[in-house]
Structure formats: C-alpha cells, structure tokens
C-alpha cells in the first residue's frame, strides 16, 4: 500500500478558491497501486482510492439542534413529531403535548398569553380562535404555517417544507411582525432557558447562514478492471471493462461556490449530521465498457485482395483503414431536488425522500402536459395523470426537519456512443505524407441526456407530495 500526502487539490484537479487554506486543510488520500494479473496481452487489475479530510461546504450558522435536558429530545426530533402530524392534516385539538416544546416554550401556551395564527386544521385563519391551547399546539400551528397542511395555504408566503421560517418566528425578535398577548418579541413566544426569555436560542443574531469550507469530507473508490488486447492480420483493438463504485460526502470541486451553476448537490445541508448525504458520487458509473480499433482493409498491392492491381488502382483503392471508438456505461446517479424545501437549513434546500418503490428510470418518450410527446427520465412521471399513485411525482415527499433528503438515489439513462473514421495516407516525399480522413461522430445518432440534479418546481400553494417533475 502506498500512502500519499497531497496538497489541497480539487477532485478534478482544480485549485481551491483564493485565498488558499492553511495546512490544516491538507487532503490525505491513500492510493492502492495496481496489482495486475496478466495473461498474454490481457490484464485484470484492482484499483482503489480512499481520501480523507476533503474540503466540503458547510453552513456554520445553521440553527442549533438544542437538546431538552429533561426529556432528552432534540429540536429536530420535536419538529419532526409536529411535521408528521400537520402534513397528515391532524387537527390541532388532537395534538398531544411534546416535552421539548412544553419545556422550552412555556410562554407560548394560552395560559401564559401565547397566540396561534390559525394555520392548522381545526383552527380558523386570522387569529386566536381556540380558547385554550398548550405550548405544543401553539408551536404546531406556527410551524404548520410553513409546513404545511391543506389549510396553511391561506397564509401568505407559506411553502411546503419551510420549517426554518417557522423557527425564525419563534426565535428571532419581531421577525413575524405581530406581537402576541404576552408581549414577547417572538411569535408566539421566545424560548425560555434557565427561567429567562432567550431569543436567538437557535439562530445566530448576526447570520442566517454562513457558508464556509471544512476538511471533513471523505471518499472511497473501488474498481475491478479487465483489458483485452489483440493485434493480428491488420486488426488491432482494445476492449476495456470496469466494474466500480465511488462513494463520497460531496462531489463538487473546491472551486464551486454555494450557488454556482445550480450546484446544490454537494453542500452539507445538515451541519449537525454532515454524513447524511454520503452516497454514490455524482460521477459514479457501475459498469463501463470502451473499445478502440484500427483495421487495415485487405485490399491493394501485397494484400489478400487486389494483390496484382496497378500502381494507380492501388493509390486509389488500396491502403485504406477503418478506425473506431465505442463507449457504453450504465447511468450516472441523480436526485430529486425538492424546490422550496428549507426544512433543515435556512439557506440550502433538502432533497426529496423516496417513499415507495424506485420509479422506472432511463430514457423515455412520454406525453407532455400541453400536447405532443417529449423525453423524460421517468417512464411514468405523472405529467398527464398526477393522481396516479405509481407515478414518480407521488413517490417522493419533502424532507422533515433535520433531514437532508436522499442524494443520488436514482440512476439516469447511461451513455452510448460510436465514432468511426476512414483514412488513407499517400507518401509524397521521404519525410512528407498526404492524408485523407473522413470521421463520423455518434454514428448511430444516439441521444443520451445528462439528468444531473432534477428540480421539482412545485406550485407555490401545492400540498405535498411533490407536485411537478420536469
């Protein structure tokens, strides 16, 4: 085993942004050398590469995941308990007290002058319409304004899976713009810690987000490779096969900023659980075959056919060669990007979460919403029949608070390409040749679309599951 210590270098060989980081951010990687097994011209080998302390983008100002010392419950656990209920349309009257909310936000209850906005099912939009409610029910109603149930679409600005905005209301003074009866600056109340009103218990008072780099990434690549080579009778060719898997926390190069090129694919969404998005790399291809060949046509002087042809005929018909390249691979991974899904991070949206069997993916021609047919990575995207429970559109949900979603859960259509060439060279002088070549790229005219990260541009008022797949 060879141990390699490298200077900070991006995974695609591009230097990180200026200014450069200190030696603390040095990338360490282990490279397992080739140990080939050769039989004649053929070769089989294993290649492995493992890297640690890779640079990853992370939000240093992500809201704190506070833990209730009495119950042991964290904010994300408490927020998920609410989210699962209001996304299912549970009436506010049926919401039982949750220790986290009761201990951290006692002033939100009706007994202490709290308030509800009327977003939740069972309440009336526009104000306090329930005489008595617990702190948990008050938080349920506020989070539901951004959560969201079927009723919360009456609240201007409500977005499915936008719980970080609900958290801002209960943590950032005057964020909501309405003062509850208890007179507190947060709505319906600020957190109470050690008996004191504590705004900014979750958010930083200075930043809503603070993106930075941290050397906490890692990756692993394992592959088996087989090469077959042949050279005889005017035919030379190589055939190479690779079976591999690459896993990492994120695949972006260090030069990529947070929103450059709609990247969104490698930033750590949950800073408190940075390995949630550890998954197949963006460039991972399980199977890959490539081949190249050159074939000298057996026609012309000294060849199998036309050995006795004249010099002129040989100059026109003899000496030609055919060459080609062929490449095939299985699909690259992609994910469903849930638009407006700020359930965990204020700045970064989480991915969708698969709730049923994986939908059939590849390259399909399907009916479009308006008229006609067009390409789609899903065999049944649900464009013309969004109520079909088996349509891809209905197989994903918005992530819950604390979840990053599922990265690279699906596979695209893969690649296929054949290039060919026909060439002939004539000797002009001892040191000069004249060459004529004709090259054709993508001979079979095969179209393969790069899926990348798929975004779901949902209608602003639409209730989950995800509403549109493009």
What attributes does this structure have?
mainly beta, 30% strand, 5 helices, 470 residues, 11-stranded antiparallel sheet, single chain
- Overall SS class: mainly beta
* Mean residue pLDDT: 82
The poorly predicted ranges are 1-27, 149-158, 456-470
Q: Characterize the main sheet.
A: 11 strands, antiparallel
Question: Which percent band covers the strand fraction?
Answer: 25-35%
Q: What's this, in brief?
A:
The chain has 470 residues and is mainly β. Helix content is 9%, strand content 30%. It has three domains: 2-57 and 210-286 and 330-358 and 395-413 and 449-456, no CATH class; 75-198, no CATH class; 291-328 and 415-440, no CATH class.
Task: Report on the architecture of this protein.
- The chain has 470 residues and is mostly beta strands.
- Helices cover 9% and strands 30% of the residues.
- The protein folds into three domains: 2-57 and 210-286 and 330-358 and 395-413 and 449-456, no CATH class; 75-198, no CATH class; 291-328 and 415-440, no CATH class.
- The protein has helices spanning 75-86, 99-104, 135-144, 163-169, 311-317; strands at residues 2-5, 28-32, 37-39, 42-59, 191-193, 196-198, 211-232, 235-248, 279-280, 287-296, 321-329, 333-334, 336-338, 353-354, 361-367, 373-378, 396-397, 410-411, 415-427, 433-440, 454-456.
- Strands 1, 2, 3, 4, 7, 8, 9, 10, 11, 19 and 20 form an eleven-stranded antiparallel beta sheet that branches.
């Amino acid at each position: 085993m060879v141990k390699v210590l490298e200077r900070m270098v991006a995974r695609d060989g591009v230097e990180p942004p200026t200014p450069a980081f200190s030696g603390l951010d040095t990338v360490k990687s282990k490279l397992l050398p080739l140990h080939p097994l050769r039989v004649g011209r053929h070769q089989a080998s294993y290649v492995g590469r493992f890297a640690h302390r890779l640079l990853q983008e992370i939000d240093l100002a992500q809201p704190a995941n506070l833990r209730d010392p009495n119950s042991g419950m964290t904010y994300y656990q408490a927020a998920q308990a609410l989210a699962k209920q209001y996304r299912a349309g549970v009436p506010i009257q049926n919401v039982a007290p949750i220790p986290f909310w009761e201990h951290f936000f006692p002033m939100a209850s009706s007994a202490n002058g709290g308030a509800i906005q009327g977003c939740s099912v069972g309440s009336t939009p526009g104000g306090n319409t329930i005489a008595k409610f617990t702190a948990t029910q008050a938080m349920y109603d506020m989070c539901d304004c951004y959560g969201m149930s079927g009723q919360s679409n009456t609240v201007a600005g409500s977005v499915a899976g936008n719980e970080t905005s609900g958290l801002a209301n209960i943590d950032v003074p005057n964020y909501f713009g309405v003062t509850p009866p208890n007179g507190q600056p947060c709505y319906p109340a600020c957190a109470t810690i050690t008996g004191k009103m504590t705004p900014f218990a979750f958010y930083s008072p200075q930043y809503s987000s603070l993106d930075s780099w941290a050397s906490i990434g890692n990756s692993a690549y394992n592959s088996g490779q087989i090469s077959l080579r042949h050279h005889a009778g005017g035919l030379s060719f190589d055939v190479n096969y690779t079976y591999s898997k690459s896993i990492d926390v994120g695949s972006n190069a260090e030069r990529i900023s947070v929103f450059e090129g709609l990247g969104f694919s490698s930033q750590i969404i949950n800073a408190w659980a940075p390995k949630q998005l550890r998954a197949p790399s963006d460039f991972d291809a399980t199977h890959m075959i490539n081949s190249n060949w050159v074939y000298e046509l057996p026609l012309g002087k000294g060849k199998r056919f036309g050995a006795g042809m004249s010099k002129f005929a040989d100059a026109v018909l003899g000496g030609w060669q055919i060459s080609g390249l062929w490449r095939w691979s299985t699909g690259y991974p992609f994910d469903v990007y849930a638009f407006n899904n700020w359930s965990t991070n204020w700045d970064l949206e989480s991915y969708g979460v698969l709730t049923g069997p994986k939908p059939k993916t590849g390259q399909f021609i399907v009916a479009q919403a308006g008229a006609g047919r067009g390409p789609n990575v899903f065999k049944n995207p649900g464009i013309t029949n969004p109520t079909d429970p088996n349509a891809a559109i209905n197989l994903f949900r918005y992530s819950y608070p604390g979840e990053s979603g599922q990265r690279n859960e699906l596979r695209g259509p893969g690649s296929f390409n054949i290039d060919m060439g026909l060439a002939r060279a004539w000797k002009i002088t001892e040191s000069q040749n004249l060459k004529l070549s004709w090259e054709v790229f993508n001979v079979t005219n095969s179209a393969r679309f790069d899926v990348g990260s798929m975004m779901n541009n949902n209608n602003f008022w639409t209730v989950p599951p995800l509403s549109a797949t493009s």
